[in-house]
Amino acid sequence: MIPRSHILQIVLGGAFAVGPGLAAESFTAEQIEFFEKSVRPVLAENCHDCHGGHKHENGLRVDLRSAILRGSDYGKVVEPGNPAASKLIKAIQHAPGVEAMPKKGGKLQPQEIAALEKWVQMGLPWPEEKEVAHGPAKDPMQHWAFQPVKKPALPEIRNSKFETRNPIDAFIAAKLEAAGLDFAPPADAAALCRRLHVTLTGLQPSFEEVKAFEMAAARDLQAAVRELSNRLLNSPAYGERWARHWLDVVRYADTDGYQVAGKNNRYPYAYTYRDWVVDSLNRDMPYDEFLTHQLAADKLHPEDPAHPSLAALAFLNVGDRFINNRDLQTDDRIDVVTRGMLGLTVGCARCHDHKYDPIPSKDYYALYSVFNSSIEPANEALPVIGKAADEGEAKDYQDKLDEIARKEMDFKRKVYDEIRAPERLVEYLAFIREAQDIKDGTARKGRAGQLKLRDKVADKWEDFLKRHALKDKPHPVMLAWKEFIGLPEKEFAAKAPAIVEKLVKPEAGLGGVPRNELAKRPAPKSFQDIAQMYADIFNTCLAGTEPENDDWRQVREILQAEPSPMAFPVERMNEFFTRKDLDSVVKIANERVKLDVEHTGAPPRAMVMLDRDKPADVRIFIRGNPSRQGEVSPRGWLTMFGGEKFTDGSGRLELARKIASKDNPLTARVIVNRVWAQHFGKPLVGQPSDFGVQTDAPAQQEVLDYLAAALMEEGWSLKKLHQRIVTSRAWQQASRVTAEKALKDADNELISRQNRQRLDYEAMRDAMLQVTGELNAAQVGGRALALNDKAADTRRTLYLLVDRYEQATVPAMFDFANPDSHSPMRYNTTVPQQALFLMNSPFLRQRSGTLAEKTPVQGSAIDSQSIEALYQRVLRRSPSPSEVELAQRFCNDADTLGKRAFAFVWSYGWGAVEKDPATGKASVTGFTALPHFDASSKRWTPGKTFPDKEHGHLYLAPGNGHPGGTGKSAIMQWTSPLAGEKIRVTGAAKRSSDKGNGVRAWIISNHAGALKEVFIKPASSSEIAVETTVQEGEVLSFVVEAENGDTNSDSYSWAPRIERLDPVTGQAVLLTKSDTDFCGPAGWPLNREKPQSALAQLAQVLLMSNEFQFVD
């Protein structure tokens, strides 16, 4: 435990500074994104007709936030932050006393209502609606971000005091000079060393590496920076660090979102995409190729269906599945492509033309057509792109996979045989006749269920009959069906003979097989007889017993061709699965997913997207509603950049080349801005994923354009971009703020200093594992690890499972990117909860304990050498004399507190109860500690073997036990840490068995003697309660002895509860309960964290300090 006074001193004095909250009208990018994707479409589709820009029924508009807040002619309609009190929410909920809305189209869907409720709860986030900088009449294509990328001319710097090492510095210096400012002094060598390590690799330098860099920097700082940055850029850790930044952009997760019907929602092969990103960045794959592979790797390597780069296509497929809603999946893909790669909010054109940018709705659906013309294979059909490391494991995996495939095929075979059963066939045909009078689809499906028929099979039979019987010129085989189907049942028997007489004549045109059947059968009495006739004909065909002639060939031709359900092979029986089949189907599918996820012999596969055989352009969804469709929007490029149509298959490769073109004014600017944001803690363009006309040009636009041009000139090399940035004078500035800069450049838009940055979640966790020596940084790649996996504490955080459905609270607390959708950037917060979490974090306590164990200590005292070793390991420097003194005082205080007695420590043994013949005072004699603890059963026993030959069934466990024979009573002992205070003991002792002769329970004080004695008969219980005043060190023994030494069936349960009674109020405060505070071999409760050592507490303080948590 950390002494409370020191916690306050350290936390309030420097561990975390707490910043002010957001202003009332300030919304995060995630909140705006939620509005645009989940709220604006609902308002546009359902509300704008009556409450939009041109019509304001009851004085209400819902196309402007200010108008919604103003309300209607009857008053306010929303209470921001309080959906339950908002009339708008009550109206869409159809609550009593409020006019139900919308008036047309029925009640909103539950998910739409939930979205509006969440929106009101959030305070009505809405994008700022300012006038476009160029004015409404100005051509939006004149917007700065839509102009071709050109290298700006270098400015003239008049003041010689400015040190400019590359053009970045020249552009920044010119703005600083104009503002009367200067660069901040360079950061010291130690700070630069750590800054380089963290920004390029996300890892920490060691004390020795810092010292080596300081020595090199003393000789030539810039040479030292270049050498270190080159080494770091060429280390595998570089790709791991920068892959994580890209995974934020692509909304990476290892699961698909909601779990539906018990389905395992893991993506077994998402890791191959993550590893591809790491490898591509480490190889410095040109950024244009990096993007192209993620959209169309299959088109780049058509000759190799197992090419490793196919893994890149998971860029499109690792998003949420939205409960298998294809429209939302496609919207998600459009969003991640356009915002992630282009910095354009094309998704805002889903329901209407973009409000600000020159993006018509048809452009959105042109991209929709691209992805609609692509397909994503099922897991089992994903291409294998490598081999398992161990051949034996690979064979075992394949054997298990074959067994699962057999189970799946057996289940399909069962369905296949069922729908072909002779008795079922007639039932399906008869149902089609009955169902023609059922107009409601739901009712029709329900009736099929009542008859135990598969509605999807029935649908195929209906399609079959529509094609071959229910048309003007039916197929000859089905002519009789057409003739009889129209007869009313009441007239059927009377009119059927005449129809038979007509049909059996050769000139009627009826096929030979049904004609012969009609001729030899009695005249049908009802349509059931016609259904039976056709069922018999079809069953003969299915059995393969029909003669080989033209008449039967006619029957086979229609029966064995779609849409006949009899044409479907066993492999396609999944198309006929019912809801009832799901339990079995999901169980088998989950076995496959589990095998793919866990088995080391599973080969890596790529989550690919492939072209459909035939492109499938879509029609524009009017106001985003798939049921209201307009004109076709062919696959093509954005109109604002030419609008060329795509003709090569789905168009993904053409789309990729348009995006990754040097002629595209956005792509290079967007990635440069993203890279800059990571190096400086702040982007040049404040909205990294929105370069549209609502986003002003950055203060340092020349820097952005210069770096974008240089990136393309130098082969789209990201490593060269990093090198150019970190070797600049601007990047190497210290982060100190002067009063003048706080006034003239408060937001650091001019880059008059470096920005101090808190370690993000991944860097923080990795750093903690790194300084303890637990991190295996040499192991790169592999399957995602659950947080509770034994190996997780040796791997970088990049490799931990990202669960979209059950997002871990710890990463979220430290601003981990939400994988539900594309993340423009991390919005870092500094709040008290983070410090409180770290103070109580089991993970941090474990790391602190490991650090303490690895810190050399001479004897029992923590000397200056131990403290120096700890500082060097955690903070990469030696402590000052005053820090050594403070640390020693801290450790001494912690050690003193750690030695105090605790009220929840128990001990266990056996002994006897004896009474003094003279006084009658009872006492425990011969107490012997139980020597053996079995961890699996949490049980103390006399020996390893149970029962024990000498002591029988004697044991003690949490809340229960069993005494031995005479002189071997089961005893729990509690030692009081209280001096002269009153306590209360309660708890029921119970014997469950009705056998034996009972047990005797005692509470005995080594000061006062027996406080309570109770006999517990078989199959009974007794409440044992006592109040007494105890002294410090007084021992209470809780004894259970076998009556008369007979131990037959003497198992019992007893969990004494000890409370301290307040001397004034009498209020009880729990001190301990024997079952929940049951102690193990360490003499400490199994359910309680053991106190940290003084050195471990000091280690935790250092790990929580600003110096460790922030990068200067």
Structure write-up:
The structure is a single chain. Helix content is 41%, strand content 10%. By secondary structure, it is of the alpha+beta class. Among the domains are: 29-121; 184-234, no CATH class; 244-386 and 608-664, no CATH class; 421-568, no CATH class; 906-1073, Jelly Rolls (Sandwich). It has a six-stranded antiparallel sheet with strand order 7-6-12-19-15-16, with no helix packed on it. The protein is globular and about 125 Å long. The model is unreliable at 1-24 and 131-137 (pLDDT under 50).
Annotation field: number of helices: 38
Strand arrangement in the largest pleated sheet: 7-6-12-19-15-16
**What is the end-to-end distance?**
30 Å
Percent in helix = 40-55%
Number of beta strands: 23
Structural class: alpha+beta
Poorly predicted segments:
1-24, 131-137
* Beta-strand content: 5-15%
Rounded to an integer in angstroms, the radius of gyration calculated over CA atoms is 38 Å
Q: What is the overall shape?
A: globular
Overall pLDDT metric: 92
**Largest sheet, described in full?**
6 strands, antiparallel
